[in-house]
Amino acid sequence: MFKELKPASESQESLLRKKRDVGRDYRDFVVNTRQNLVHVRESTKGTQGSPVMLFSNHVRLKSCSQRHLYKYNVIYTPDIEDGRKREALLSELEKLLGNRCIYDGNSLLLPHSLGETKKEVVSKLKNEPVKITFELSRELQTTSPDCLRYYNILFRKMLEKMDLNQIGRNYYNKNKKTEFNEYRLEIWPGYVTSILPYETGLTLCADVSHKLLRMETAYDLISHTREKARGEDAKEKILRKLVGSSVLTKYNNRTYRVDDIIWEMSPSSTFTKSDGSEISFVDYYKERYGTVVTTLNQPLLITKGKWKKSRQDTPHQPIMLVPELCHLTGLTDDMRKDYRMMRDLSTHTRMDPDRRQHKLLTFMDALRKNNTVQKELRDWNLELEEGFLSFSGRTLQDVRIHQGRRMVRDKSAFGNTTAFTMERALDGVSFSFLMNFIPWLGILFQFDNHKADWSKNTREAPLLRAMSLDHWLIVYTKGNYETALTLQQNLQRVTPKMGITVRNAKLLEDLEFLSLKLKNTVKILGSTLSVIQRYVPQHSIHFPRHPVLASWGVSRLLPFKVLCLLPTDNKEIYDGIKRYLCINYPIPSQCVLKWTLDRPKTPVTIATKIALQMNCKLGGALWKVDIGLQNAMFIGIDCFHDIERRRKSVAGFVASIDPDLTRWFSQCIIQESGQELVKGLTTCLYTALKLWSEQNSSPPRSIIVYRDGVGDGQLQALIDQEVKQMESYLENSYRGQKLTFIVVKKRINTRFFIEKDGGRLNNPSPGTVIDLKVTRTEWYDFFIVSQSVREGTGTVTPTHYNVIHDTLYLSPDAVQGLTYRLCHMYYNFSGIIRVPAPCHYAHKLAYLVGQSLHQQPHESLSKSLFYL
Questions:
Q1: Do the Cβ atoms of 632 and 701 come closer than 8 Å?
Q2: Does the CA dihedral 432-437-443-446 come out positive or negative?
Q3: CATH superfamily placement of domain 213-331
Q4: Strand order in the sheet with 107-110
Q5: Up-side HSE of residue 867: CA atoms within 13 Å toward CB?
Q6: What integer best gives the mean pLDDT of the chain?
Q7: Domain PAZ, which positions (predicted)?
Q8: Euclidean distance between the first and final Cα of the chain, in Å?
């Protein structure tokens, strides 16, 4: 571990001590949200759909006895900051504690009692006496949820004994790494593990993981950048490349995020150790790790330590890193553009279900054959069962997708074909009703929908609400006139079938853009924006008389759109254009890279996607589905945290303002860095309900919220803050309003597989629901596999849903079906996505504002999907 640049102040030390005191009273528990949901107290299992047999990556962990375990809080006097020193002091007390104990840094779990509720002993640290007090916290059953933290610590120790190296939270085998010398990359194979309680008891969830390292140190990058600078500001270039990147120090297998570079210091510089003595960085590494620093004229890197959502207010003491010892991790943008390299890497990192399960079975066999691991398990009366958990899931019925005069029945869940019906509007009579009784009214087509993708049919039928594009600009650089003209022609070729009228655009050449050859981003950006400004009125809603518009014979401009054809993916230029057209001159905008249009064999496909995006940004709608819930508003909430630059966090709030989910209201809340829970929801909800009432003459009967980005440890805080905000507002302003609040979790390690003919494992079909065995008894939760993954390209990741509040009393079948149908309503992809559409819209909004705008978009854009 790196030493601090300077000792913590007294106030910081007292703050850290208080945090540890809180930790001593900490108790692992699961927030029992189900106990307040009376309609699902008996069962959270659904019944609809076709049964399907599933396998998982969970292994049951059995307890072989009902003996008690004892949890003790451990207090050091004087206080010891260093966690390693705390553990070293405890290791000297083997006669008292025995050789079976699990220490988490604050408390201790023992299989036997110390005989007293409070016991004090004295140990020595460098001949200085330290009093250690053990206070009995509670007696526990071996299956108690309070033991989980200790079992996970125990399991991590067992992985270390299997010669796996910890990097972050996961463990990797560097002895089995795969080297890609051509790309100067290496991949370490590893595993993600966690022990949690489910309906079947404790289970070990194991999944395959990979760590990608570059055969390049931070010092190599600094040296190469200096050589290529050629008189330019080398330091500025180095800062841009290094700040925000992650590095691995192999001498302790820890990862750090680079926050700054201190040019005035070098490895020869000294710092003050915790005991008050001075030592140079060179001597420290040699003394502590046996590592020799060879280059003394390199600067030092600064990191503020690990960034955590729950500790954004904790003071960060700077940690110094020597670039020579820091190995770069992850891929650069240039690397990601190398198709050949990405293809070669994916052969190792992307595993289909059969290959993944084989790797996991090998891992479990190694655990069972390792004598040290088995002894550890026996010492704690634990045993891993043979084989992975298997159980029955259900595949939901097809979802009907309405587009203009067409209705698509998505039957990807039942096979590789989907029924496609073209129907006529008959005096407002329900198409679905007529098709149930008069099937010959429609013409039935079959098409391959194994990918749960209906993009082909989208471009061949009128859209649900098509917006004509009469007045718009295409801004391009010198020499790209033909590309701009071809794009316009392709758009005019693909849009008639969709019902969109695209008139000729005003083609504007930005001469200065190319002449600067991208050497000065500020000037380039200013040039582009000045071109746009000359042809765009000040506001897109209220239009003053404008000379250019007058020359076109237009007094009003509705709708108006700007398309920028960019020769490079320079982020600063993109961000500047988006800020200008989302804040200063709020009009819908589209940025397209020239190389995207130049790709062979895809001009029609690309033009179609651009047309669909433009239609949505102008207020159009592509399709709709039968939601099955009348007069309901759907809300999505997600937060974006700029971990790299530690800027302020952005919460995205998106709400449907019509019953068909084709119109959306959006608003952002900018918060302190790292803040996850949102405080300004009342204002957002007020505006959303007001817009709904204006468009539908009455408020919605119910509100369903999908909240992404919240961890299990934040559930109680979420209920106390966000749910309470919304519930209190509805009680005071809208009597009888029903509220359902669902937490969405994407980053999970649980996987599900189905067995195909021949015994091979495959991915479950889209629409597969799992609501037993691996769900929690304290929650109203379930998993849905909504995406489709091409065979042989990887393993699908399910999404976990947890209903934490429900005054609408939705049954399991209702909430599962509703959630799956909403996964069909994201307009930026003609297929099924991983999460409900409002959730992903909120993510896109928060990401755009957090990455590019850094302030509130203009309110005139709040009723359009400008962030797609």
A1: yes
A2: positive
A3: paz domain (2.170.260.10)
A4: 102-103, 107-110, 68-77, 128-141, 118-125
A5: 31
A6: 82
A7: 217-330
A8: 43
pTM exceeds 0.85, yes or no: yes
Q: Which residue has the tokens 């390199």?
A: 298
What is the pairing mode between strands 768-770 and 390-395? antiparallel
Whole-number Å distance between alpha carbons of 673 and 787:
32
- Which residues are catalytic, by number? 638, 676, 708, 843
The per-residue DSSP string of 537-556 comes to -S-SSS----HHHHHTT-S-
| Domains 213-331 and 471-617 agree in fold | no
- Model confidence pLDDT, tens digit, residues 757-797: 778 899 999 999 999 999 999 999 999 999 888 776 789 99
pLDDT tens-digit readout, 125-139: 777 888 999 999 999
**Rounded (5°) CA angle 16-22-28:** 130
> What are the backbone angles phi and psi of residue 697, rounded to the nearest 5°?
70, -5
Task: Return the CATH fold of 626-855.
Answer: Nucleotidyltransferase; domain 5 (3.30.420)
Domain 471-617 has CATH 3.40.30.10: no
User: Residue written as tokens 């254009």?
Assistant: 577
**345: Cα separation from own chain's centroid:** 22
pLDDT at 422: 28
Q: What are the tens digits of pLDDT across the range 419-467?
A: 333 222 222 333 332 223 322 222 222 333 345 778 777 778 899 999 9
Sequence-distant (≥ 6) Cβ neighbours of residue 4 within 8 angstroms: 271, 317, 318, 319
Peptide bond into 318 cis (omega under 30): no
